[in-house]
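Sharing a chain and its predicted structure for anyone who wants a worked example. Both blocks are below, sequence first, tokens second.
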Amino acid sequence: MPNSEKPQRKGLFLLGYLLFLVLSGSAFYWIQHEGHLLSMSLPSFSSSMGAAAHEQINDLLQVLLALAVVIITAQITGAIFQVLGQPLVIGEVVGGILLGPSLLGAYAPQIQKTLIPDQTLPFLGIIAQLGVVFYMFVVGLELDLKVLKKSGHTALAIAHAGIFFPLVIGAYFALYTFKDLSLPGVPFLHFALFFGISLSVTAFPVLARILSDKKLNKTKIGTMALTSAAIGDVTAWCLLALMVSLTQDSFGSVIRTTGFTVLYIGAMFLLGAPLMRRLIPVFEKFDRITEGGIAVFFVALLLSALATELIGIHAIFGAFLLGAITPHDSRMAKELTEKVEALVRIVFLPAFFAFTGMRTQIGLLDSSEDWTYCLAIIGIATFGKFGATLMTAKLSGFNWKESSALGILMNTRGLVELIILNLGLDLKLISPRLFTMLVVMALVTTLITSPLLSLLRIKPEPQ
């Protein structure tokens, strides 16, 4: 093409483009004009829908800002506590408390209202609950049922001693604190059972992280601690399910909830587990698990959580059960853990910690009596769990050093304790004041685990 024709073609193209814009604008103007005449013939339209849409956009902006603040805070405080030799989860919990009324809300309320306004709390609560559901699914995936079967009577004895002895002394302590720390209208049985369960929990995931960091997960002590903690967690969740069923309105509803719970657990292990063992090889035929296979598991997870929520024992039990019946060593379980764990740990769990922190009000403990109660709860929780585990391990053939190490390890509470405490607060079984005391207890008992274990100098030699 001659060079003289190029400017001419460019000019024609520009002219045609401008003509196209003019015609398009004119056409849209005519359509708008006709539409305006049409709308004038209709009844007047309220602007409430537009206002609602604008409010939703504002809510989204505030939730996005709050989530960003929560994640950044969790990463910073988690890193600081890791440098101090503590589990990452402890720093994240502390970060959530710092964002709440205990620190930021007390000393810089305007900044807190800007970063995490009150209207974002319901959204954070939903995100937190979803995060806990997916987290409990991952905990179930990491639970090796074969190890539980092979552990024998020793792990069972240590686990149940560490559950029932603190539960009994916690219930006994409730006799003296019921009038001061319970909410009006809460029956003593509900209060005492929940209080006892909250003192008897061991956080299996946090314990596994501590053992892995100290390279003790393959030692005799580490294996026994993990096995006992797993059995203890399963027992604690069953007790918690029973406790939740007791909060129903009548004896008939308790029987119904308990019956449906037993049926559902039986169906999951007798029907769901064999079906899972048949389905997983189908998904694992490919080099990588397909998106369809992952979707099937996520739908099953949501339906299982929905089922237990409808039964009345909370969605987390359904998520945990589905994870537990999934073969622990399958490629499907490992890939699901990889895909879910990072998102849950980085986004969802910090939201849960922030939500917990917003409900933890250290300022409620404003008297010497409150702090006396708090110290008493820490002491009972620590020595109850430690003493029961120590004596049971010693009677089972461990030496004093090994028995002490097991007692220290089983005192780790962490995230599982916070899940239970939030459940108790939601069910109005405990007051915000007692909730704060129990959160402090959970933090202290988890914080002292690593330093005390270091004092014993357990060697990281595989068994």
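Comments welcome. The mean pLDDT is 82.
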